[in-house]
Design goal:
Helix content is about 45%, strand content about 10%. By secondary structure, it is α/β, with parallel strands linked by helices. The protein has a single domain (about 5-330), classed as Alpha-Beta Barrel (TIM Barrel). The strands form 2 sheets. The protein has a 7-stranded parallel sheet, with helices on both faces. Strands 2-3 form a two-stranded antiparallel sheet. The longest helix is centred in the middle third of the chain and has 24 residues, at about 165-190. The protein is globular and about 55 Å long. The structure holds coproporphyrinogen III (CP3). Coproporphyrinogen III binds near residues 70 and 88. Coproporphyrinogen III (CP3) binds near residues 28 and 94.
Length: about 325
């Protein structure tokens, strides 16, 4: 691999600059993505088209020159293997079709997601430039899609389910933990250099609920991966400042945090690596503000390693490609 900056930064080794990649780096803000995407009507078929997914995964390397590629897929695809119908209606986000009965879920068979492993194998075969990141949704974030049946703003159904149907909640969290453990293991076996677990919806939980009902499954999932592989694992969680101290003790190699965390203080408390932190809304500001806010963050990082630049959440479809490129160039121009 020509550029292993990401792997060195995660291990805490000496680096000449901070590595950069962006969550949702391949997406609708890119004209080239929209052109390829347009050829396939539904999003799930698009994820299953290995050649298109490989081409799209490579776009950020070609156009932004980022230091890692993340495979093009979606956190919801393993749910289909459990027997849940997934639908992406245009501009409405995902819709999931599950009866609500845990016993209706099928046993997860990782080989039914073989197209994902094919994408990883081809990405490793076609380029030896940068590391390939595999990913999955975390148990709680996937559970919230199952219970809500769609995107939500307050997750009230998920919370009531967690509080009142404790038995079903824990059975479902167990099933999802085993599923994601097998799914990520298969991605690592296919060649993923790093894997990221997306816990996008922890943001809405109280600390007590997170600690009692979510964290044990995150720890179980991390153990399942870490007992088998040395591959670095990144855990992305929102509402980060509420839970970050709990996560210092886990087996995650990298904590990917949102902008609620003050990294200048947080990174002094542990030798774990960190990722992220810049508020994605910065990309709606002027070029001057983008440079200023990015450099302010980079200058505040208290260690010369153990940090990976990223946003605190993903890029949005209405962001300006030129500004995204400016952001990447600003990070790459900051020498340590
Ligand atoms: O980061 C990358 O470039 C890799 C690809 C990727 C996608 N989804 C592609 C996608 C990744 C890593 C994801 C993860 C994902 N998917 C998350 C976790 C990250 C986060 O943002 O918190 C979540 C919560 C989902 C669920 C999901 N998938 C939603 C809510 C939507 C619809 C949103 C919308 O804007 O329509 C998707 C669809 C989706 N996944 C798209 C892309 C590029 C857009 C669909 C399209 O192009 O038609």
């Amino acid at each position: 691999m020509k550029n292993n900056l990401l792997l060195r930064a995660i291990k805490g080794e000496k680096i000449e600059r901070f590595p950069v990649w962006l969550m949702r780096q391949a997406g609708r803000y890119m004209k080239e993505y929209r052109d390829i995407r347009q050829r396939e009507r539904d999003f799930v078929s698009f994820c299953k088209n290995v050649d298109s997914a490989v081409r799209v995964s490579l776009l950020p390397l070609e156009l932004l020159e980022v230091d890692a590629i993340i495979i093009f897929s979606d956190i919801l695809v393993p749910l289909e293997v459990l027997g849940v119908g997934i639908e992406f209606a245009e501009n409405e986000g995902p819709k999931l079709h599950w009866s609500g009965k845990v016993s209706d879920l099928k046993k997860y068979n990782p080989s039914e997601n073989s197209y994902v492993y094919e994408i990883i194998k081809k990405l490793k075969q076609f380029q030896q430039e940068v590391p390939v990141i595999g990913f999955a949704g975390a148990p709680f974030t996937l559970l919230s899609y199952l219970v809500e049946g769609k995107s939500s703003t307050d997750f009230r159904r998920t919370k009531v389910f967690m509080w009142e149907r404790e038995y079903d909640f824990s059975r479902l969290m167990e099933i999802l933990t085993l599923t994601i453990g097998d799914y990520l293991s298969a991605q690592i076996e296919a060649g993923a250099d790093v894997v990221q677990i997306f816990d996008s919806w922890t943001l809405h939980l109280s600390r007590a609920d997170y600690e009692e009902s979510v964290l044990p499954y995150v720890e179980e999932l991390l153990s399942r991966i870490k007992t088998k592989f040395d591959t670095p694992v990144i855990y992305f969680f929102r509402g980060s400042s509420s839970f970050v101290d709990l996560l210092r003790k886990t087996k995650a190699d990298v904590l990917s945090v949102d902008w609620s965390v003050d990294l200048s203080l947080e990174m002094l408390k542990t030798d774990k690596a960190f990722q992220g932190n810049l508020d994605p809304s910065v990309l709606y500001a002027s070029e001057e503000t983008i440079k200023l806010k990015t450099l302010q963050l980079l200058r505040s990082i208290p260690r010369k390693s153990g940090y990976v630049f990223n946003l605190g959440h993903g890029l949005a479809p209405d962001m300006d490609f030129k500004k995204v490129k400016l952001l990447v160039d600003t990070v790459k121009g900051y020498r340590l």
